[in-house]
Structures are given as structure tokens and as C-alpha cells.
Amino acid sequence: MRASVASSQKLPLIQNSASTWQVQMTNLLSDIDELCDYVGLDVDEVQAIYHLPSKFPLKVPRAFADKMTACINDPLLRQVLPTKSELDTHAGFSLDPLAENAHNPIKGLLHKYQSRVLVTLTGVCAVHCRYCFRQHFDYHANLPTSDDLVKICNYIRQDEQICEVLLSGGDPLNVSNRRLGLWLSALAELPNITTIRLHTRLPVVLPDRVDDELLTMLDNCPKKIVMVLHINHAQEIDAILAKKCQQLRQAGVVLLNQSVLLRGVNDHADTLATLSHRLFECGVLPYYLHMLDKVAGAAHFLVEEEQAITLYWELLSKVAGYLVPKLVRELPHELSKTPVDIYSYQRNF
Ligand SMILES: *Cc1c(COP(=O)(O)O)cnc(C)c1O
Questions:
Q1: Which of 101, 106, 113, 287 is the best mutation target for the ligand 1 pocket, counting ligand atoms within 8 Å of the beta carbon and taking the most?
Q2: What is the pLDDT of residues 292-307, one digit of tens each?
Q3: How many helices, marked H, and strands, marked E, lie in the chain?
Q4: Atom of ligand 1 nearest to the CA of 117
């Protein structure tokens, strides 16, 4: 149970906050019985739907499990629990749904859109979200070395149209402050770059990752820093995360959020409205609401287009315009994320 684990977390290893997140990173929940025990779930009930994946195994930080309820339908549990539905094959669900392999000029670099490039800093993430569109991505062949860092910087420098670099992965905050610092300093040297953007879920799933050293580094970076969090449900936002958001904002970081529209997690207008309000309380603006990428193993999360549009209209009617994320999908070989055509269905609520 949580109480006993909380005491076992007080490992003698944890001496200062600087090492806390790295210790937590080595102490993730990866065993189904352990997860059930931690959250207080009925093991038999969970075992009935669980499947043990051969790749992309169960992986959940305790700090994320702390926000779950002891319910099989908990929206946070659902995001991370490998279920038998993953084994079903569905037409149209593939291993590389975004054909990203076609936009990979240098190891570690994706250049799909004119003004911005994306660097996959690491293949590792602290949490395995079952709907992850990069769950089959070949990171092994694609992690940038320090040589690649130089190549990537040269590539960016030679293309005047590029003004923003996205650090992604995996989770870019999964790397050490030292390594992240190397990237930030190298990118800070590039005159055409105005903005560095981090796409990360770590502040949500392992908030201690936002430590003082990171905050100072972000604060001192001469480029504008944008952080896009990835929160799907208001239950993911607790006082600890709210505090981290406040610290990030004090360090001059612009906070945005993207969600994926997921069946059984956030496929109701009220759920999305509550999420938007809660984000705003923490100084985070909703940015994107993504349609699910059709990645093999994730079909059970699909919200069909008609339902998505219907609930989007309903969301529009409930919250201020600035609390409505853009409803988009990502299509291979397009010049940007593609807005979903919400006029293709009438408002019918
Ligand atoms: C999503 C994405 C971006 C950023 O797109 P924005 O619309 O600016 O958020 C950039 N590069 C790649 C490869 C992406 O997938």
C-alpha cells in the first residue's frame, strides 16, 4: 500500500533534493503486482485485463501512481496499464503512423515543418503511456551523440527559416542537467533560433525532476523557453505540480499543455473543461488536443472523429475561447498539424 511504500521511499540514498529525481527514476513501478499493491487495486481484477508486453513494458513513477485512485477505471491508471486489447490488430494502425522515418536528415533530428526542428534527445521516458505514437520508434539508431550535436547545430544554422528547436524524445528531461545544459548552450549560440521548446511529461509524472538546478538553467538561457506539458486529465494536477508550474513561470518559462483525446480517459466535454480550468489555475494554457495517432496497440483508445467533433463543439460552449485547445491530427507528410474540420458535423448536443 501507498503508506508503506512512502516510508520505503525514504531511502538513505536520498540526501539532497538534487539526487532525488534520479533515485526515483531507478525506483519506478514496473511490476503489476507492485502497482496494484501501491495503488490499493484488486490484483485479480487487474490481472483479468492485464497483459505482459514483450516490448514497451509497464513503467510508472510512484509520484504518478500517487495521483491514481483504487479503481480499475481510473483515468490515470488507464493511460499506463498494458491491457489485452493491445494485442488486437486493427486495419490502419501501424508501427510508424507519422512516417517520421522519412524526415530524419541527421541522427536525432526530425525536420518536418518549415520553421522548427525536433531533436529526439533520448529514447527514454519515465512513464510508458500506452497510446505513445513513438512506442515502436527506433531510438537506438537515432540518438544524437556529441558529434551529432555539432552536425545538428550546423544544419540549423544553415537554414534561415528555422527559428525554433523542440527538445523531445523520449522525454528530454530524462537526461541529466549537465547534458541538457550542453544542448541549451549549443542552441543558445545559434543566431536564427529565438525559442527552445521542451515537450515533456516529467513535471507531471515525476515532479522532483524540476529541481533548482534546472530552474536556474532555464532562467539563465538567453532564448525564450517554452515548455509543453502533457496532461490528459485534471486528476494529474495536484498541489505539487501546481507549485512546480509556479516555479517554472517564475523562471520565465511559458507553459502550454497538449492532451491526446483518449477513450475512457478524457472523452467528455466536462472532463476537458475541468482540465482547462485546472491548467489555467496553474498558469498553463491549453495548446493542442490531439486525435489519437493510429499506432499499433492503441486502437482501444480511439475516439471516432464524429464523437470528437461533437464533444469539441460542446467544449467550445462551456469555456472561454482561450481555454479551448486546437483540435488537430498529425498526418504524415503535411506541412503542419492538421486542424480537424469541425464543420463536417453539426452541433448535435
Ligand atoms: C509537432 C511537431 C512540431 C511542432 O509543431 P507545432 O505545431 O509548432 O507545435 C515540430 N516538429 C515535429 C516533427 C512535430 O511532430
A1: 113
A2: 999 999 999 999 999 9
A3: 13, 9
A4: 11
